[in-house]
Amino acid sequence: MIKVCAIASGSNGNCYYIGTEKEAILVDAGISRRQVMKRMKELRLDISKVKAVFISHEHSDHIKGLRVLCDMHDIDAYLTRDTLQKAHRNYHPKTAHVFTAGDSVKVGAFTIHSFSKQHDAIDPTSFRVEVEGQNIGVMTDIGLACDNTKQHLSQCNIVFLESNYDEQLLEEGPYPYYLKQRVKSDHGHLSNKQAVELVEQVENPKLKTIFLSHISADNNRVDIAMKAFEHLANQYNILPTNRYAPSEILCVGEEQLVLFSQ
Ligand SMILES: [Zn+2]
Ligand SMILES: [Zn+2]
User: Fold this and answer.
1) For residue 92, what are the domain limits?
2) Which of 51, 56, 112, 193 maximizes the CB count within 10 A of its CB?
3) Could you tell me the distance, in angstroms and rounded to a whole number, from the CA of residue 10 to the centre of ligand 1?
4) Which CATH number covers residue 218?
5) Which residues are CB-contacts of 201 (< 8 A; sequence separation ≥ 6)?
6) 205 CA to middle of ligand 1, Å?
7) How many domains are contained in the chain?
8) Is 150 helix (H, G, I), strand (E, B) or coil?
9) Could you tell me the pTM of the whole model?
């Protein structure tokens, strides 16, 4: 049995949990250690099981809790050399393992496949985590659904997929012109519409659950993102994530996915 959830998701912090009965990994540590601890406690998840944190890129909403979390709990940090160099020194843990985008790294029962993505960071990567026969994708902060993204999504059973903005809300919203252009660009974020198109295009029958992730506070709303995916809800479990609280936990057993209500 594995458990999967978003401890936090959005532009003020990202942290995704994938765990077996014995051990766990996190992808990104973009909230404080205190917040990670508080939210894991609410979810009845045990920090001592966490063996590693994989970092997708150096933007602070993905890395700002890394140093304290890793140093205090003896957790191994994994990131690319360029990401480590570019990251603010305050975020550097005592020890860091370096990987190259495209590497597959083994941590206990987990195999973490990394791959490059398009985003305005130095060396951004997404991940597909393989454990107990399941493949869980963590694919946020992508300007464009590149071939890597499509290829790995086609192997996923579960995915945290960016559904960052609604085109109209972004257009009419408070962001200055240059920031609107940045969000929309091929190195910015994926809109609700682009996320839907990606899922439709890849058409993966193994994919069961989609966590709508990194939903913008200013340029999107959970109900709007959910609505964009409404026509796919008979095919997939569509679950929202939230910036202020953890998502529901998805428990994955032998055959099917079962939702665990808090
Ligand atoms: Zn981000
Ligand atoms: Zn980013």
Assistant:
1) 2-259
2) 56
3) 7
4) 3.60.15.10
5) 145, 150
6) 28
7) 1
8) helix
9) 0.96
